[in-house]
Amino acid sequence: MHIPESLQELADSEAVRFLKRPKTVGRIFAGVFSLIVFSSLLTDGYQNKTDSSQLQCVLNSNHVACSFAVGAGLLAFLSCLAFLALDAHDSRIASTRFKTAFQLLDFILAVVWVGIWFLGFCFLANQWQHSPPKQFLLGSSSAKAAITFAFFSVLIWIFQAYLALQDLRNDAPVPYKRSLDEGGLVLTTLSPPSASSPINTPTAGPNSMSYASSALSPYLTTPKVPRLAMMPDN
After folding, report:
1. Strand partners, 48
2. CB within 8 Å of 45: residues ≥ 6 apart
3. CB neighbours (10 Å) of residue 157?
4. Which residues of 220-230 are buried (b: 16+ CB within 10 A; e: fewer)?
5. CB 47 within 8 A of CB 139
6. Whether 85 contacts 107, CB under 8 Å
7. E strands, 11-128, where?
8. Could you give phi then psi for residue 21, rounded to 5 degrees?
9. How far apart are CA 58 and CA 142, in angstroms?
10. CA distance 119 to 43
């Protein structure tokens, strides 16, 4: 393992450059927001009422709301970790088809997560609005944190979808062109030569065809027809 000797060498290292990428920063923030959503409701989201010992969800006693937030947050967190691992090995992917499929999957999942977190934010905020005040002694801060970071997750996944779309546009395959890594030849369309092209311009010089034809002209004469002579009668 190489240990950098200076701060400049550390800043120019591959790991630091990977962490500086906008997509990496966006995935880290998305993972942190998801972690806050599901961990806050998983730890303090279930409380008992003052007159009962049974645990209830702090969001209007709706177990579906807490289960949705915990499940969505956990899946989004695992998704961020998986895509971070794939991004770290992005430079080692030689197949252009696999890279394009990966970028398309990244864009589709980002759009899906935008819709999930938007619906989740509206659902959680609605349940919290209908929750009776001071129904639970604890858990109100956890509910507010889950709702707040669910809204932030909508914004960060919109940013992720934008970056994935930019990657798809920048790395779109060029028609009639193969990369040399795939063992193919670069195929380009050849335009017909124009009138000013040097291919159609006759060259004038001692080796040209005009000179050769003029030099051989004295020897390329038509043969003369033999004349018939009249012989006298004896």
Report:
1. 55
2. 57, 58, 59, 66, 69, 70, 139, 142, 143, 146
3. 26
4. eeeeeeeeeee
5. yes
6. no
7. 46-48, 55-57
8. -65, 140
9. 9
10. 23
Say how many residues make up the chain. Answer: 234
- Maximum alpha-carbon separation in the chain: 164
Choose among 125, 186, 181: nearest CA to 151. Answer: 125
Q: Are 108 and 165 in contact (CB under 8 A)?
A: no
Over its length of 234 residues, how does the chain's per-residue pLDDT go in tens digits? 455 556 565 555 677 788 888 999 999 999 999 999 999 988 888 887 766 677 888 888 888 999 999 999 999 999 999 999 888 877 676 667 888 888 899 999 999 999 999 999 999 999 988 887 776 667 788 889 999 999 999 999 999 999 999 988 886 554 433 443 444 444 444 445 554 444 444 444 544 444 444 444 454 555 555 555 555 554
Using CA atoms, how far apart are residues 87 and 85, in angstroms rounded to an integer? 5
**Which residue, chain included where needed, has tokens 């004038």?**
204
Quote the CA–CA distance of 176 and 98 in Å, as a whole number. 19
Identify whether the C-beta of residue 38 lies closer than 8 Å to the C-beta of residue 143: no
DSSP letter for each residue of 97-134: HHHHHHHHHHHHHHHHHHHHHHHHHHHHHHHHHTSPTT
Rg (CA), the chain: 39
Residue type for position 87: D
